[in-house]
Amino acid sequence: MQIEIQIDSSHSDTKVIVMAPSMTEEVDSLVKMLSDNAPHFLTGSRNNKLEVLEPADLIRIYSSSGKVFAVTPKGEYTLRLRLYELEQRLDHNRFVRISNSEIINLKKVEHFDLNFTGTICAKLTNGTKSYVSRRYLPKIKQMLLS
Predict the structure, then answer these.
(1) Which of 3, 4, 10, 19 lies at a C-alpha separation of 20 to 30 Å from 30?
(2) Residue-wise pLDDT tens digits, 28-77
(3) CA distance 91 to 94
(4) pTM for the structure as a whole
């Protein structure tokens, strides 16, 4: 993708033009990002306090016992959103769903291990190991190879 910025004092408003050979997932994601004026932050509760969470600080998000939890270097927070809502809100180039119950931050992955049974284990920066389910394996491979 090429990015070009032109500063012209004769324009009274900002104008964004996206030129592409076809409508792709990347173009669609870009359009959604540019047109979404809602703030991109999450809130999580811990110790009866509600805190603002920066998406870049998230290591993993998982569901357990009907609740959704976010893990950061500061600790674990309970979220009010569902995993599918978080998947839509978070940056698709940084966060990836690896199972029905977990989303990980690719920037917080130390490495991926392939074991003899064909599964992929993601070792995260906080020492946690998460396993990619077979259903999400093609998506992970596509993200890592693109």
Answers:
(1) 10
(2) 877 777 766 555 678 999 999 999 999 999 999 999 999 999 999 999 99
(3) 5
(4) 0.71
